């Protein structure tokens, strides 16, 4: 085999092994050598992004590549499986990692120890979770990414971060224990941990054991949905994400999507997508409603971004629960668009926040609500014609772009995604029932709420700021925000190929027989 | 035997849940540890409780086809080792954050402030 062939055959382990190795090698390096650390870290994330792009580019049907770790055959050994969905998720994680790393170069990488190692471990855990074909291995990668995220959540220290992280860690440790109980229950009943093998074995189990297997599946689901932030399991999410440092929060925006990914993968492949669909749909809709309330009530930009993340999680869960392959395809497109938009938003929140005195947001919105702003209205009208500084103009433009994406307003990808979900949901055949109409109404309402929330926040921050001071923003901090938004513009312009890709991925997910055959082929 | 193991798991899990719901951070840490012990035992039991069985298949070397029913399932034992290591590491992480929270907020209440009387 040629060298290129060898490389291609082992390409799938690169997104897991490379960040793990780089993260470990960076640990003993002194914190003062942050230029070297940053260079290694950025190079690694770029390599992972390239590997993911290569995996996505040569995606085959139904799976691209099955890689037996240690060359043990499938049901006994652990396999990594790359298909369209996992390649796209790895690429998305790598892009967010690159953006967060570039953003951190300005100052966050020096705000605490081992920032680059933690980001690399998080990337390794994320990629492993996206690529693995084994339930227990999924647990191990979940723990890896969670352990790294605990470190990132407290990065930069400070009482609010540590307080929020304490809750975050306690809840996720408990959820991990549920995950373990669920996995081992399934193993005890069906005798396998390989997802494809489980899918074949579960229909054949004795009727007496069926209830136990269903309990195991439900516990797995709860563990995933805690990560996805589904109501009522997601109350920890806004506080933690709003308190986290900007690059960490941007990376966390894909963390909740790991929960959604795990639900989609395990539910569709192992359980055939049948039982629990209503639960997923109604839970997702409750999550949207909760997120909408959060968007409307948010008094800080960080909370606003976190509430939008909950809305996006809920939209995904409800869409996957209600629809067939076409809805899932639209939901996958929405997943990419909303994750990019929310990550850009988390980065912007920090940049914009620099121009404002602490507590200014709270005062502004509260004054709005209680009509206290009226006292200031007889100010002299000298402010007409004040020049907006270029930095503020750029920030405002980026904020508007991210807000359009998250709210799902034209012309960006967020609109196309929501439109595609609605179009697929309301397709006349079969006639949409009232749960579908409820979801459609909720989607429209959530867009409206996002417009109100973001409009109010944007007006307060950019147009009506009291004592505005221009924030000191460095180019390296604006670039990642611009790049994330540019990625969304590309996603908008190339909507047709992107949707086709998502549709093929969704069709493969909804017909798992091909996946199972490929994985178990000797 | 099954009853003893089941009762052990139940007592550990019950105490763990009660402690996790307590307001002091140290109680939560101990509760999470107890819960993880319960889960570890549970994983172990998922290979079914059998007395006097070995997980090592020694007959294959002698050319005899081994009968799986005579051996304990080794996989849950491997899983439980992994789970123990991971629970140990994450509990250590939790303790670090617990101490940091105690230092930064000046209280060991999980909300970082004492409830108002």
Spell out the key features of this protein.
heterodimer, A: 522 residues, mainly alpha, two-stranded antiparallel ribbon, 2 strands, 2% strand, globular, B: 117 residues, 0% strand
Question: What does it look like?
Answer:
The complex is a heterodimer of chains A (522) and B (117). Chain A is mainly α and 522 residues long. Helices cover 73% and strands 2% of the residues of chain A. Chain A contains 21 helices and 2 strands. Chain A has a two-stranded antiparallel sheet with strand order 1-2. With 117 residues, chain B is mainly alpha-helical. Chain B is built from 3 helices and no strands. Chain B starts with a helix and ends in a 12-residue tail after the last helix. The chains are: A mainly alpha (522), B mainly alpha (117). The interface between A and B is medium-sized, with 29 and 32 residues.
Write the layout of secondary structure elements.
The complex is a heterodimer of chains A (522) and B (117).
Chain A: H1 3-10, H2 14-26, H3 34-57, E1 65-68, E2 79-82, H4 84-104, H5 115-131, H6 135-153, H7 159-190, H8 195-201, H9 207-228, H10 236-243, H11 246-269, H12 277-297, H13 301-322, H14 325-353, H15 360-370, H16 390-407, H17 413-425, H18 434-463, H19 475-493, H20 495-510, H21 513-520
Antiparallel strand pairs in A: 1-2
Helix pairs in contact in A: 2-3, 2-5, 3-4, 3-5, 4-5, 4-11, 4-14, 4-19, 5-6, 5-11, 6-7, 6-11, 7-9, 7-10, 8-21, 9-11, 10-13, 11-13, 11-14, 12-13, 12-18, 13-14, 13-18, 14-16, 14-17, 14-19, 14-20, 16-18, 16-19
Chain B: H1 2-20, H2 25-45, H3 74-105
Helix pairs in contact in B: 1-2, 2-3
